[in-house]
Every structure is written in structure tokens, then in C-alpha cells.
Design a protein that fits this description.
This protein is an alpha/beta fold. The chain has helices at residues 18-33, 43-46, 55-65, 67-83, 88-93, 97-107, 117-129, 165-171, 195-202, 223-230, 248-258, 273-279, 289-297, 311-321, 331-343, 345-358, 363-373; strands spanning 8-13, 37-42, 111-114, 135-139, 156-159, 178-180, 209-214, 238-243, 264-267, 282-285, 302-304, 326-327. Strand 1, helix 1 and strand 2 (37-42) form a beta-alpha-beta unit. Helix 3 packs across helix 4 (67-83), helix 9 packs across helix 12 and helix 10 crosses helix 15. The protein is elongated and about 65 Å long. It starts with 7 loop residues before the first strand and ends with a helix.
Length: 374
């Protein structure tokens, strides 16, 4: 039986990618297990559906259709953040301030935990202009200090790794507010499901050489170009499972091109990501902070490819520098790295060993404990 706490916690995310939601829900799972009352909201949808073109939709379109533009925006954000001036991100998210403040105070929340920059900015505005009774926390869901994080004012920031702390301090965040917990991941990524059991659940042959290609929750990157490159060296036992996220256009294109190819399996949005990871011999993925952590905690050999310029490049470099992944600059490299992992067991073993040394697997539990006790 779980403990009981006379405590209410609000978890706020933003659907600019599924990772932020997974992050918040992983912490919620741990808080619920400890008897804490929790509520979870996507802040951009909290006060009614957005208009015809929301910020969420705009960022998702840029990520899928024009990733280089996203990279330019990220660099511009770094420059503005370095100047120390009030950012447009803060100004936009201040629009939610009054309503969010009223909600938090009226519902009697003791703490608010944010897994995205946007609600952190809103809470910062609230603290400057209104009376807020709740403690406020932020989760850094990438392996670098992101632009504008330092202009937020949280009671504490939860970091995925010790090596991220220095960059946050240099950006101007007080060191005493930086708590290294590890990345919060859902319980499904820490279960005892074996590779054989995962393959049985998903209907994947035991003898298949399974390459898992992940495009993120919104389906980013040229998955078809990557599949074409991997298929240049044929192997009848090869199986490429492509998780297309919510990108219906990508799913249809995969179906049209590879409909008669038994080596390709196109998978629509699924809640079985942890099972697909466990079933894989190698994962080729964009470098989202949460998904990269999930793979490393599961000890899945990882090749980073199709990275969105900006923070994902930083994430990929972080993992590669610690030996936890192989970072591919193009599809030729990605295919070569993936084949090396599949056919040369020593490469996979080296990556897994590095993951086991570097990852903190209890991030969600550590965050929940901190929120309860502080």
C-alpha cells in the first residue's frame, strides 16, 4: 500500500514532442505511488484549445518540414539568451499568467513541476507579478543548458547528469538550485521484460536482425532515405521497424514505397515504445533527451541520426563523448555504425558498458522524493 501525503502537485508539460509529456508523467507515476494527489496538463491546451495555428503546431511543422530553420532559431535563441534581455518566449508565455496563478492557488497545489521551458516562463512571470503559494520546479529534459532557462526563477532545477551542471552555472543559474537526479523515465523502461518476451509481444521473429528507427512523437527526419541506405546491403534476416510517430504523411509514404518488402515494418503512433526498444538489436534515432535516456537506461545500442539542428546535436554529442552512442553525420555513417553494432558484438558491448556507467536510472523517483521532502 502506498503512503498517504496531504499534498497536491501539478505537473505541466507542452506537446512540442512526446518526450516532455513522458518526462512529466514519469514523475507523476512516482508521486502517485507515494500517495500524493497529482494533476497533469499540457499548458498550451489548459485554458481552451489554441487557435488555428498554435505555437505547438508551428514548432512541430518547423521540426518536421524545415529542421534547419529550427536550428537557426535555436542559435538565435542562444544569442538572445546570452545578452540577458527579456526573451520573446517569456513574453508569449506571460499571457497565461493570471489564469494559471488563479488555478494553482484556488486548487491549493503545494508544488508545480514543469517538464518544459514554456510553463517555467509562465511561472516566472507569475512570481514577479502575483502572489503564488506553491513551490516551483523545472526539469531539464536535454543534456545541455537550453536557451532562456536562466531567465526562469524556479526553486530548483532537476538535471539529467552531473556534467550538465557547469553549463547551467555559467548561464547564471545558482549552483545550489541545481539538483542532479537523472532523467525521469516511465516505469515501463525499467521493467524486467526480456528481448525474447518483447519480440513475442510484438510478433517479431526471434532470429531477426532488428533495426529500430525512431522519428520521435511527431515523426521527424528522412526515415525513407535512412531505410534505403540500410537496405543497400541485403540480409534476409534484416527487419527495419520504423516508428513514424503521429506523422500520418510519413506512415503513408512508407507504406507506398515498401508495401511489398517484408524487411520493412512501418509502425503508427504506439504506446509500446519500450517493448520495441527491448526487441531491437540496434536503435537509430533522433537525439531527443528523453528518448536517448530511455534507450540508455534499457541498455540498447544507439546510433544518433536525423538530429534536428540545435539541442539535439548537443544531446548526441553528449552521449557520443561518454561512449553511450555513435553519432552519425549522414546516412552512410548511420548504416555503417548500425551494421557494426549488429554484426560485431564487441561494439554493442562497449556502448552498453558506457551506458551502465553514465546513466542514473532512478530520475523520476529522485525528483518525486525531492518534491515531497522540500
Amino acid at each position: 500500500m502506498s503512503e498517504k501525503h496531504d499534498m497536491k502537485v501539478l505537473l505541466l508539460s507542452c506537446s512540442t514532442g512526446e518526450g516532455h509529456n513522458h518526462c512529466a508523467k514519469a514523475v507523476r507515476q512516482q508521486l502517485d505511488a507515494k500517495g500524493v494527489h497529482t494533476d497533469f496538463f499540457d499548458m498550451l491546451h489548459l485554458f481552451g484549445e489554441p487557435g488555428p495555428v498554435s505555437m505547438e503546431q508551428l514548432l512541430n511543422v518547423i521540426s518536421t518540414k524545415a529542421p534547419n530553420l529550427f536550428g537557426l532559431m535555436y542559435k538565435a535563441g542562444e544569442r538572445v539568451s546570452a545578452l540577458g534581455v527579456t526573451s520573446p518566449v517569456y513574453l508569449v508565455n506571460s499571457n497565461y499568467g493570471r489564469k494559471l496563478c488563479d488555478l494553482i492557488n484556488e486548487e491549493g497545489y503545494d508544488a508545480v513541476v514543469c517538464s518544459h521551458l514554456f510553463p517555467m516562463e509562465t511561472l516566472t512571470y507569475i512570481r514577479k507579478h502575483f502572489q503564488l503559494n506553491a513551490r516551483c520546479y523545472g526539469i531539464l529534459s536535454d543534456y545541455t543548458c537550453i536557451p532562456f532557462l536562466a531567465e526562469t526563477e524556479m526553486d530548483a532545477y532537476f538535471l539529467p547528469h552531473e556534467k550538465v551542471k557547469n553549463g547551467c552555472v555559467q548561464a547564471g543559474i545558482p549552483a545550489e538550485k541545481l539538483i542532479v537526479t537523472g532523467m525521469p523515465v516511465a516505469g515501463s523502461f525499467q521493467s524486467d521484460l526480456t528481448k525474447e518476451e518483447a519480440r513475442s509481444t510484438l510478433g517479431i521473429p526471434v532470429n531477426a536482425k532488428m533495426y529500430l528507427i525512431m522519428t520521435g512523437g511527431i515523426g521527424c527526419g528522412d526515415a525513407i532515405g535512412l531505410c534505403d541506405k540500410l537496405l543497400e546491403v541485403p540480409d534476409p534476416d534484416m527487419l527495419l521497424c520504423v516508428l513514424a510517430g503521429r506523422n500520418q504523411e510519413l506512415l503513408e509514404r512508407l507504406g507506398e514505397k515498401y508495401n511489398d518488402n517484408p524487411c520493412i515494418r512501418a509502425v503508427p503512433f504506439t504506446d509500446q515504445v519500450s517493448a520495441y526498444m527491448r526487441a531491437a538489436d540496434v536503435l537509430l534515432s533522433k537525439a531527443g533527451g528523453i528518448s536517448s535516456a530511455e534507450a540508455a537506461i534499457l541498455n540498447i545500442p544507439l546510433v544518433h541520426t536525423m538530429m534536428i539542428p540545435g539541442v539535439e546535436i548537443r544531446n548526441a554529442r553528449f552521449f557520443a563523448d561518454l561512449g553511450m552512442s555513435m553519432m552519425a553525420d549522414n546516412f552512410d555513417e548511420a548504416a555503417r555504425f548500425a551494421d557494426r553494432i549488429v554484426y560485431d558484438g564487441t561494439t554493442a558491448a562497449r556502448l552498453i558498458s558506457a551506458q551502465q556507467k553514465a546513466m542514473l536510472p532512478e530520475g523520476a523517483a529522485s525528483i518525486a522524493e525531492y518534491v515531497i521532502t522540500h
